[in-house]
Amino acid sequence: MYRKEIKVLDCTIRDGGLINNYQFSETFVKAVYAAACDSGVDYFEIGKKLADSDSYPRDKWGVWNFCDDDVIREVIDSHECEHRPKIAVMFDIGRIDLKALKPIDQTPFDMIRVASYVADINKGIDVVKTCKELGYETTLNIMAPSAAIERDLAEGLEETNEVAQLDYLYLVDSYGAFYSEQVTSYVELYKKYAPNKPLGFHGHNNQQLAFSNTQQAIIDGVNLLDATVNGIGRGAGNCNLELLLNFLKNPKFDVRPIYKVIQEQMVPLRETIEWGFNDIYGISGYLNQHPRAAMRQRGDDENRDHCYDFYLESRRLDDAAMS
Amino acid sequence: MYRKEIKVLDCTIRDGGLINNYQFSETFVKAVYAAACDSGVDYFEIGKKLADSDSYPRDKWGVWNFCDDDVIREVIDSHECEHRPKIAVMFDIGRIDLKALKPIDQTPFDMIRVASYVADINKGIDVVKTCKELGYETTLNIMAPSAAIERDLAEGLEETNEVAQLDYLYLVDSYGAFYSEQVTSYVELYKKYAPNKPLGFHGHNNQQLAFSNTQQAIIDGVNLLDATVNGIGRGAGNCNLELLLNFLKNPKFDVRPIYKVIQEQMVPLRETIEWGFNDIYGISGYLNQHPRAAMRQRGDDENRDHCYDFYLESRRLDDAAMS
After folding, report:
1. pTM over 0.80
2. Which domain holds residue B287?
């Protein structure tokens, strides 16, 4: 598959940081950034830009949860690169200090990605507008659409369609619940209600489908694709960047730096934190559940592989919730 | 996805046995058989039926490589089941004693699957004819079509099309090299040259695509699907049976016995043998290589995770082979 319009966004640090409260070392982040530069990816999302708060105190969270300008500049300056990727950062609705955001020429960031549930789309739109006025590229990443009432989602999409300040609208499979046919059906919905907006796709690997669903999104016309080195990310993780670059066949990409950083950085990291497919996340994705119950099960050494018990309990809770 | 014509073949023991020379315990095989029965799958492939030989001496290989009638009958008799799956066994061209095969009413087998490379399709057809004359359902599993010259494959397919004794023709992604678009393109080729033959699909998980490619085969009209419990199988393994049953939504299937046997049998087995996706198999699949180099790398404790070295070396060998 080759299509010149396709762009790739590496969200290794941002989505991977959800596993370890953004406690990656500077060495690690610089190595991943250098690999991203040399691989030719288009965007590099380096973390979240949350406000320091009672929920997110600086002593518990790593620097990639706050992304202070000087920290990020040091990463960028650590690697010479002819065509460096644009630097993206994520804003979570309700956890940011928007007033503190400076214009684009005074920060190291190029793109701001706004993550919002369907219920908060209008808040997300307001943030997008402010970011665009300050000069940034913008995305709106609508989380967990598979758990939304379709009419609510459609209304939200219609509103985003009118927002000239929004550059990309993201379809996000937060629960890892999509099969390829759902990707197609949601992309159709997004195109129907927000026909003006270029689309992005962000998958999760609960059912071993993050990579294949990303391919399906490409087939369905999506041109901005999220992926992470080695598929690192919360729970079952994301689409593997190295598999995606192999698939894309675009000569602007070079997969070798990605395999190099896997060998040198990811292999040792895999000894300390867990991500990727397993039976528990498979069930969670199939049942279109928020991954929190699955993550709790995986954190329980006694029961982490008890997929049969997890399946029965999940179905029992589903049934109980209906009564 | 629900289509009543779809049938599922559990090849856990046959493909899984490639990892450990078929040294599964009787307890393990009986537990997997019982789970298959209770889950409602249509076929259960219990091993290979190879002739005892210098290459396959009985003291090195487990009983599931020979599948003597009395051993298989004991498994079948170990579990009461209202609708038991049909029992399949695999024949490898050139490694069998066809003259020793008895008529269907004198053996525990219902289906014989004949595995053949493209070059041996005519030998495979001869075996299929003999098996059908003795009363068995038959399949011809053409191995590694992604490594065959398409004209040779097309000729072979045309010949199979005329063989009334052949019940199913299999598309096999032996190298785990297919993307969904290749599945579609090969299914079209098979339908063009062998339009009379119902098709089967057997995937491998080198690029995390065994399950999604099986979905694509379904979309493209394939009705007999191979899968294994927990995706066990040589190298990167196969399509996970539990994910497939979830996807199929057919009320005749019950996924619970599969999760139960995973929890009770597969979880401890995973401590002793390895299967499933990793970076090395991902590269091997992408490069459309026989998995032997990848398996060798994984067997080398020092280098098993050196994916960058493996990538460079594989490309170097490819380049050298061209000169």
Report:
1. yes
2. 279-322
